[in-house]
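ESCALATION

Customer reports they have been waiting on this structure for their group meeting. Please prioritize. Original submission:
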Amino acid sequence: DTLFAKHHLSTADAVLAMYHDQGLPVLKHVSFGQGVNVTLGLPIIRTSVDHGTALDLAGAGKVNIGSMLAAIDLAIELSKNKSQKPNP
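Update from on-call: job pushed to the front of the queue and completed.
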């Protein structure tokens, strides 16, 4: 649990959690609206927002798109890096 302290997070680019339930609650607490969930080990790049679908807010003009933009930006960056690496 001390891994998620601000002084540790300020020196890291990412935190690897082995299970969804270990990492996502802390991600939501620390960076809600700006965090990105990344699934590793897939043959495709998969990023997602740090929150649920919030269908009740759809079309209401009350949503924060920060996490969606961050997820898209990270997917773009990961795709650039992936294309630069040779296939094994």
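Sent to customer with the following note: The radius of gyration is 15 Å.
Escalation resolved.
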